[in-house]
Structures are given as structure tokens and as C-alpha cells.
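RECORD TYPE: inverse folding
INPUT: C-alpha cells
STRUCTURE:
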């Protein structure tokens, strides 16, 4: 890699405009709002909603996370399958300049607990079907101050030892469907993924907004 960076003649291309992941979903909702997203349901079936509908929920998620104290630089874990709620958090968390910690379901409890502690995650969103996994690692965690359960069932029907426990759908219901997303310095991390630790402890890779936007 070159050791010196030189500056040529300035462009008029608007390159001072930061590349943020939120720009992608805003464009999809604005330009292709009627386009449908097809996703699996917890029961194994299929359902769909539009980009416009998804974006409104992502905005609500932004409000919900902010209300829980999520701020720029915070790491927020997601322990979930490939669901629509995971899709929404994929944009909402980085949209606040926080970091989406992708929690690898293939890791054992010891390594998964290490990942959460190493990242310094403060909140974890967990699918109801994965509550036993979350409960197994909870005693190992040092920085987590709350849990968000991802479920269609009401909170009073969910049996878990995790505390404090928030309900994702309840949080969204109470939130507005418009959010004024900040502009984020594009080299900021949007997501963290950890290796499986085959040669030692898992190792974190923090991807930038710029990197995923260009990807």
C-alpha cells in the first residue's frame, strides 16, 4: 500500500457526503417503497411487507433504542435468526452511530460470552426461541444492562430469567414512525463480526459504514 497520499485537482462529485448505511434504506423506501420484502415467519411460513413499511418500523426502532439510552459508539448485540426484526435492527442500530454486534449462533456459551464482554455490548436483542442461549451466557456477562425480546407474543406470556427485559414490539408501538437520522463519519463502525475462535479466542472485525456502502 502507498505510504504517501497526494491530493490532485478537486472534484465536483460531492465526495464530502458521508457514506452511511441509513442512506441505503432511505433510498429504498423513497424510490421503491411499494417493493415487497419476503421473509420467514417464526412458524416456518412466509410473509411480506414493503420497503416503506419496513422503513417506518426502522424509524420506530431508532426512537426505541434512543429511549433505552443507545448512543454513538455503543455496541448492541443481536441474537437472532434471519428475520424481519433482525433486518430492521441491521439499519436502526448503525443509523444511531452505534455498532451492530452480530452474535454467532454457532459459538458455544463460553466463546459467545467472551464476544459480548470483549465488545462491551450494553444491550442485547434476542429472539424468543433463543432465550435459552441468552440465559446460558447471562451469568458470564459484564457490560450488558438490558435485554430486548423479539417476539410476537406479549411480554407477560414470555418466561425468562433475563432482566431487565424489554419487548421490541411494545417499544415500536410507543414510538413515532419518523426519525431524523444523524450524519455519521463514514469510517465509523456499523457492525462487528467475530471469528469462530478456531486458533484461540474469537477475534473481532469491525466493518465501516463506508465499507459496507461500497460493498
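DESIGNED SEQUENCE:
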Amino acid at each position: 500500500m502507498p505510504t504517501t497520499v497526494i491530493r490532485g485537482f478537486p472534484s465536483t462529485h460531492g465526495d464530502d457526503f458521508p457514506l452511511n448505511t441509513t442512506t441505503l434504506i432511505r433510498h429504498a423506501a423513497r424510490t421503491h417503497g411499494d417493493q415487497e420484502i419476503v421473509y420467514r415467519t417464526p412458524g416456518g411460513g412466509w410473509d411480506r411487507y414493503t420497503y416503506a413499511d419496513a422503513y417506518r418500523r426502522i424509524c420506530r426502532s431508532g426512537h426505541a433504542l434512543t429511549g433505552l439510552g443507545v448512543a454513538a459508539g455503543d455496541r448492541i448485540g443481536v441474537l437472532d435468526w434471519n428475520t424481519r426484526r433482525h433486518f430492521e435492527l441491521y439499519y436502526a442500530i448503525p443509523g444511531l452511530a452505534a455498532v451492530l454486534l452480530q452474535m454467532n449462533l454457532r459459538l458455544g456459551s463460553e466463546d459467545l460470552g467472551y464476544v459480548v464482554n470483549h465488545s462491551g455490548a450494553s444491550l442485547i436483542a434476542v429472539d424468543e426461541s433463543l432465550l435459552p442461549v441468552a440465559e446460558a451466557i447471562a451469568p458470564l456477562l459484564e457490560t450488558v444492562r438490558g435485554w430486548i425480546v423479539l417476539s410476537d407474543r406479549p411480554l407477560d406470556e414470555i418466561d425468562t430469567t433475563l432482566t431487565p427485559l424489554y419487548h421490541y414490539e411494545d417499544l415500536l408501538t410507543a414510538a413515532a414512525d419518523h426519525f431524523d437520522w444523524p450524519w455519521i463519519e463514514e469510517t465509523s463502525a456499523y457492525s462487528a463480526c467475530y471469528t469462530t475462535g478456531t486458533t484461540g479466542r474469537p477475534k473481532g472485525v469491525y466493518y465501516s459504514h463506508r465499507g459496507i456502502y461500497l460493498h
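NOTES: The beta strands are 36-40, 46-50, 75-79, 99-102, 123-127, 146-150, 165-167, 189-194, 204-208.
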